[in-house]
């Protein structure tokens, strides 16, 4: 359910009491980089990272997306340092299902014990007694895969029954997998790879919107390969905005259940991202952006 207000309106996760402003914040970029190891180790400027989080919350952001495998452990520890004790309206969504190798590589971590350990890691590093929403990360880097997931999802359902998790979501899944997951436990949100250039989930988003279920696009600005397009640049120039703002405003216009989570380690970029929520894109520019879907990136 959505209602109009600042930061793109407000959205209530279906079947929950969790209401957030639609423009959120993704914490992945708070972690550092060590050579070719991305999202690895602490940032060079920890006070700066803390300042970004505090600025986001002070600006009305009350939906933060994170994971304990960012860093690993780094982003959650910075969130705790910056914001704990948390304000009553803040919703922190984390994810499990992956781990990091010593070389910075990303690996599946979906056994029952790995899920249990990951939830307890998130609880400890965030300083929480219960996690509000936990997404089970499936699929590959950017797309769903046909794979079994009963063991990890059942483990999350058990932890929910124990009171350590309030709600469960899924990441990088197909509509069929969502249907299968619902036979195991209630699902409150989907987090998949989607942006103005990559639109494989068009029908999925519309179906979820009809059900009132949140769709959280990761890499809303392209991720490790930022969006680049002459059409996007032209739209930004005509609107006296930046391409980043147009890409985010387009997501807010696309469907009422879309909750963008752009990340940044810069207060300047944070302010730029949040200002996108006030940008109105005329129908003719939306049509131009629609016509180039898949051709930019």
SSE order:
EEEEEEHEHEEEHEHEHEHEHHHH
CATH class: Alpha Beta
The domain count comes to 1
- Strand arrangement, largest sheet? 4-7-8-11-12-13-14
Number of strands: 14
Q: Outline, from the CA principal axes?
A: globular
- Looking at the structure, the CATH topology is TIM Barrel
How far is the N terminus from the C terminus? 31 Å
Using only C-alpha atoms, the radius of gyration works out to 18 Å
Low-confidence stretches: none
| Secondary structure: helix percent | 25-40%
| Sheet with most strands | 7 strands, parallel
- Count of runs of 4 or more consecutive helical residues: 10
How much of the sequence lies in strands comes to: 15-25%
CATH architecture: Alpha-Beta Barrel
Q: Would you tell me the overall average pLDDT? A: 94
CATH H level, superfamily name: NADP-dependent oxidoreductase domain
Given helix and strand content, the structural type is: alpha/beta
């Amino acid at each position: 359910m959505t209602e109009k207000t600042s930061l793109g309106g407000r959205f209530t996760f279906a079947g929950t009491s969790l209401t957030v402003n639609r423009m959120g914040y993704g914490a992945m970029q708070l972690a550092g980089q060590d050579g070719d190891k991305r999202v690895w180790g602490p940032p060079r400027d920890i006070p700066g990272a803390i300042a970004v989080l505090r600025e986001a919350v002070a600006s009305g952001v009350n939906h933060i997306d994170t994971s304990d495998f960012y860093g690993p452990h780094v982003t959650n520890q910075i969130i705790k340092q910056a914001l704990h004790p948390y304000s009553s309206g803040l919703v922190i969504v984390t994810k499990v299902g992956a781990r990091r190798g010593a070389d910075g590589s990303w690996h599946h971590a979906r056994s029952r014990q790995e899920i249990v350990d990951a939830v307890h890691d998130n609880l400890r590093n965030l300083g929480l007694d219960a996690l509000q929403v936990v997404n089970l990360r499936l699929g590959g880097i950017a797309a769903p895969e046909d794979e079994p997931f009963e063991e990890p999802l059942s483990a999350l359902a058990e932890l929910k029954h124990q009171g350590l998790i309030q709600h469960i979501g899924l990441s990088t899944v197909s509509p069929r997998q969502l249907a299968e997951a619902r036979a195991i436990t209630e699902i409150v949100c989907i987090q998949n790879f989607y942006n103005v250039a990559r639109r494989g989930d068009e029908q999925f988003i519309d179906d979820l919107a009809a059900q009132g279920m949140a769709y959280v696009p990761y890499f809303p600005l392209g991720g490790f390969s930022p969006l680049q397009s002459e059409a996007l640049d032209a739209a930004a120039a005509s609107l006296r905005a930046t391409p980043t703002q147009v890409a985010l405003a387009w997501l807010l216009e696309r469907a009422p259940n879309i909750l963008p989570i752009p990340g940044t380690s810069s207060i300047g970029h944070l302010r730029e991202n949040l200002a996108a929520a006030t940008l109105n894109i005329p129908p003719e520019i939306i049509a131009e952006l629609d016509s180039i879907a898949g051709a930019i990136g």
